[in-house]
């Protein structure tokens, strides 16, 4: 008998406990111990119970090395002083850029559909929002995100194999800023955290290579930024990340041809879900903490290993966030820039164009040039137009600009642009698209992406004359950033008559000096007029 129960004494019991119970949370540990004590026929002695309680008190309930904990700790420990003056200035420009999109989008059909749905669900709540007045925090985040995202004129970050829109994170932050008094510095810090997480994950786990939309990564960046503003603890923030990470998995088909309105609205649903789950975690709801490392987790499913040292991150990627000069998908920006420069240098009669050759890098070819994402010569809607390099080059040649006016149904359906877009051919610099690794070596345009966004536009006239322009970036790219004046000009065009000149000036000044502002209320007041 002594041999049979020898393992239950002192260190022997500890070894058994570590083997069986190490990964079980406190609640389950206690109940499993009771079951062990009551149903296993071994002698019970109070010293074993004391040993067990001592082990519970000295053993961490969850492994703080998990990525969910590391991200949560990074988000909660960040300080405004760590961001740096240059990054802070850039964040403010990106916020102003997003504000322009929000004003522009308010009366657009997809937003009107959302507002109509909200009326059905029932309005009212603690958050101020445009049009419907007030909503709960999660619905407010949805509205603000949709307003930023729908025009597709917002910022970007380009990774080698994936991309993201960092400003997708602004909607939840604007909602969370109404949870408790939030000053400009607090908002900028949360914004920096969300932006950096989104950009870093785009580099570390490029989910678009697996057919998953990059909005999946918002389940981490949105939560990271919001956790600070909702006052979550480390454990609560880690659980919020885990809950959102296992619940949000959008497909990249939303960006493929035939491109629908949902392309511009998908991230708003992420915002709604993330706010909802953050507030659940704040109340103590737990999630799968080993989201990335555990069985059936991210690593096993996607074969991508997130093993990043978040404690060493110093907001290094913020300076590579970029803005758009043209109301079009980000990978088309340099080709549009080349086209507009051709028009400045030459008199081109569009009726006499025989053919237009566009040379670009592999990512652009696949997404907007009739590659893996489908035929981009079929253009009937705004969503198809802003993701068709064929259409965008054609309308740029005809109109000399690519702004929201070029994406209206009336403009899209006109015969001149429908005819010309069929003459636009898109190819990569080297005619090999697979395997991707080899194409990236042989194609100099693809090889230099994302540090450069190479593009060449060649217009061949019927009489044989050829006009050509090549570029490696565009105004708004991180190598050629927009000035405050350029961002303000863009914002003025998007806001239009919704604000007076004086109101617009006051809004611009508020955002330029955001770090000095004691409250975000003035910005919310402008947005909710």
From TrEMBL:
Can you provide one Gene Ontology molecular function annotated for this UniProt record? lyase activity
Residue intervals of the MmgE/PrpD N-terminal domain: 70-308
State the Pfam families in the record: MmgE_PrpD_C, MmgE_PrpD_N
Superkingdom classification of source = Bacteria
Occurrences of domain MmgE/PrpD C-terminal (ranges): 326-507
Q: Which PANTHER family does the UniProt entry name for this protein?
A: 2-METHYLCITRATE DEHYDRATASE (PTHR16943:SF8), 2-METHYLCITRATE DEHYDRATASE-RELATED (PTHR16943)
Q: Which family does it belong to?
A: Belongs to the PrpD family.
Q: What is this protein called?
A: 2-methylcitrate dehydratase
């Amino acid at each position: 008998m002594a041999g049979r129960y020898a393992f239950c004494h002192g260190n022997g019991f500890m070894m058994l406990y570590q083997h069986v119970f190490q990964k079980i949370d406190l609640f389950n540990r206690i109940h499993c111990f009771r079951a062990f004590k009551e149903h296993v026929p071994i002698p019970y002695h109070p010293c074993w119970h004391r040993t067990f309680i001592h082990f519970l008190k000295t053993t961490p309930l969850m492994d703080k090395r998990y990525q969910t904990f590391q991200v949560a700790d990074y988000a909660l420990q960040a300080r405004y002083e760590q961001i740096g003056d240059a990054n802070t200035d850039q964040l403010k420009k990106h916020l102003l850029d997003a504000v322009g999109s929000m004003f522009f989008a308010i009366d657009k059909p997809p937003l009107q559909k959302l507002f109509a749905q909200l009326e059905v669900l029932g309005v009212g709540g603690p958050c101020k929002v445009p049009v419907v007045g007030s909503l709960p925090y999660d619905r407010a985040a949805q509205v603000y995100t949709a307003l930023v995202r729908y025009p597709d004129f917002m910022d970007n970050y380009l990774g080698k194999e994936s991309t993201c829109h960092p400003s997708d994170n602004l909607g939840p932050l604007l909602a969370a800023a109404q949870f408790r008094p939030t000053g400009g510095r607090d908002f900028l810090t949360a914004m920096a955290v969300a932006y950096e997480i989104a950009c870093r994950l785009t580099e570390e786990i490029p989910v678009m290579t697996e057919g998953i939309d990059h909005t999946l990564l918002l389940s981490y960046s949105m939560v990271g930024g919001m956790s600070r503003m909702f006052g979550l603890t480390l454990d609560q923030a880690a659980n919020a990340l885990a809950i959102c990470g296992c619940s949000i998995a959008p497909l990249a088909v939303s960006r493929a041809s035939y491109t629908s309105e949902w392309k511009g609205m998908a991230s708003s649903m992420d915002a709604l879900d993330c706010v909802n789950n953050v507030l659940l975690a704040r109340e103590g709801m737990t999630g799968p903490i080993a989201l990335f490392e555990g069985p059936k987790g991210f690593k096993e499913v996607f074969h991508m290993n997130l093993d990043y040292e978040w404690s060493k991150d110093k907001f290094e990627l913020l300076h590579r966030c970029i803005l758009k000069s043209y109301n079009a998908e980000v990978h088309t920006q340099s080709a549009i820039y080349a086209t507009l420069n051709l028009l400045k240098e030459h008199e081109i009669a569009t009726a006499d164009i025989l053919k237009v050759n566009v040379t670009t890098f592999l990512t652009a070819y696949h997404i907007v040039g009739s590659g893996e994402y489908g035929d981009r010569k079929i253009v009937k809607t705004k969503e198809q137009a802003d993701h068709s390099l064929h259409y965008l080059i054609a309308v740029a040649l005809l109109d000399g600009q690519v702004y929201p006016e070029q994406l209206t149904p009336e403009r899209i359906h006109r015969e001149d642009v429908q005819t010309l877009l069929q003459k636009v051919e898109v190819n990569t610099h080297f005619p090999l698209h697979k395997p991707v690794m080899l194409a990236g070596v042989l194609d100099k345009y693809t090889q230099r992406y994302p540090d450069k966004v190479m593009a060449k536009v060649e217009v061949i006239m019927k009489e044989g004359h050829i006009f050509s322009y090549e570029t490696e970036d565009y105004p708004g790219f991180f190598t050629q950033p927009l000035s405050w004046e350029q961002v303000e000009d863009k914002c003025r065009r998007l806001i239009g008559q919704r604000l007076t000149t004086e109101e617009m000036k006051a809004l611009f000044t508020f955002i330029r000096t955001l770090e000095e502002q004691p409250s975000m209320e003035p910005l919310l007041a402008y947005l909710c007029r």
